Amino acid sequence: MTSVWSSPERPAFPHQALAVVLQVRGARLHAMLWRRAKEPFAGAWALPGGPLRPDETLGASVGRQLAAKVEVAQLAHLEQLETRSDPHRDPRSRTVATAYLGLIPGDLDPALPEDTAWHPVDALPETAFDHGSIVGSGLERLRAKLSYTNVAFALAPPTFSVAELREVYVAALGYEVAATNLQRVLLRRGVLEPTGEMAASGRAGGRPAALYRFATTTIEVTDPFAVLKPPSTRRR
Amino acid sequence: MTSVWSSPERPAFPHQALAVVLQVRGARLHAMLWRRAKEPFAGAWALPGGPLRPDETLGASVGRQLAAKVEVAQLAHLEQLETRSDPHRDPRSRTVATAYLGLIPGDLDPALPEDTAWHPVDALPETAFDHGSIVGSGLERLRAKLSYTNVAFALAPPTFSVAELREVYVAALGYEVAATNLQRVLLRRGVLEPTGEMAASGRAGGRPAALYRFATTTIEVTDPFAVLKPPSTRRR
DNA sequence: ACAAAAGTGTTATGATTACACCCATGC
DNA sequence: GCATGGGTGTAATCATAACACTTTTGT
């Protein structure tokens, strides 16, 4: 199945797989973008991605395209975000695009191609096509999931102190989070577990921090029912 | 822009827009499906939908295709769900499909074509393609959103007693919900407002129920931070 | 000793569940 | 009067936020 047929009855559309890749760098959340050399949007920044091939799924396609920019193994999480279909989103010709959200742990510093760079999500440069608003969707999704799932495992290093984890949350959420409470919430939910090891205390002294890790490195819902919980089963 | 070009560099794919349309009927949540007459999957039940046209968005396409089955004005809510891209999801030839979730208020009983019928989501008949699992995704999305948004407006009649609303929640969530608490949660959040009117009391007597309506008929997040709320701004 | 950083104890707050009880209506 | 629902009052539970205080380290 290397070719796909089309007819007036079943029109066909070029399809792009795009990725919003996010990473916390220097206490700020950044998105990976590459600078377009050619028109349209020459000089503007675009999401990594490219055409879907005849024999791959969108997920596989995103992985493949991303491999041109970073080592894909470094992506700790990848999920489908949304599909954009405005007929004029690409001025050249109609293209449908499905965006994914990818997350990279903060301890990695993947080598990037010449044209590719990290940009703080709260100060994006001029973006190409509808990519700016797609980054917005990715951000929104990440923020929502940080609060009721364990996704933070995909942004944090493998092992970390609560203070470091707090930085990740603050960078991603964009507001202050108290380390004390963060620790307790995540421990009670069983999201974090102590490694038993300690971090060296800083240059200025201070009690050395205990190191933690995420109990799971697969996304899981940790706070299932925001409300309207099913009736409690226990009798008293 | 009535035609779309394709090349080995930019392969094109037929694209379907599908809809998971849900409604509470007789205290059970149902999905709208039509019975396929032709192969493949002759006799199996499929989601309404069809090919994306060259000049429409996916959202518009879903609306148009759905119009062939129900009066679209009856859909109180429609949102994009996900895009399926398995190369073999359609055995005839590769097709990408984007599914939407549509909700119809319980007081309506739209006329359906001959081949189309409602099926309880907890007892679906044999389904075509990957449509069964797409219904599953829709259900999951609905259940999650019932708990932190006001989506229930799209399943409930315009005006209702708390007991009726409770039925909607029970049918959609699949577990018991106490009317007392449901009322208080939704009132406190400002999701419901009293109409001032009363329902006639039933044949067997009983206190007449007060009628309520949803304050908004647009989806809104009503329980924003499951946890990790931003610090409170008020000083004490 | 003292400053710095981490972590624990403790209280307050707020939302929600559970459940007893009171209210309004038809027969 | 009494059965049938509907609605309110209230206590118990639980998760979280806030903050004081203790612990452990470097200088």
Automatic annotation (TrEMBL), chains A, B:
Annotated Pfam families: NUDIX, WHD_NrtR
CDD domains with a match to the protein in the record: NUDIX_NadM_like
Domain spans labelled Nudix hydrolase: 19-128
Boundaries of every NrtR DNA-binding winged helix domain copy: 152-214
Gene3D superfamilies per record: Nucleoside Triphosphate Pyrophosphohydrolase, Winged helix-like DNA-binding domain superfamily/Winged helix DNA-binding domain
InterPro entries linked to this entry: NUDIX_hydrolase-like_dom_sf, NUDIX_hydrolase_dom, WH-like_DNA-bd_sf, WH_DNA-bd_sf, WHD_NrtR
PANTHER family: ADP-RIBOSE PYROPHOSPHATASE, SLR1690 PROTEIN
Name of the protein this chain belongs to: NUDIX domain-containing protein
Organism, as annotated: Blastococcus carthaginiensis
Record lineage: Bacteria, Bacillati, Actinomycetota, Actinomycetes, Geodermatophilales
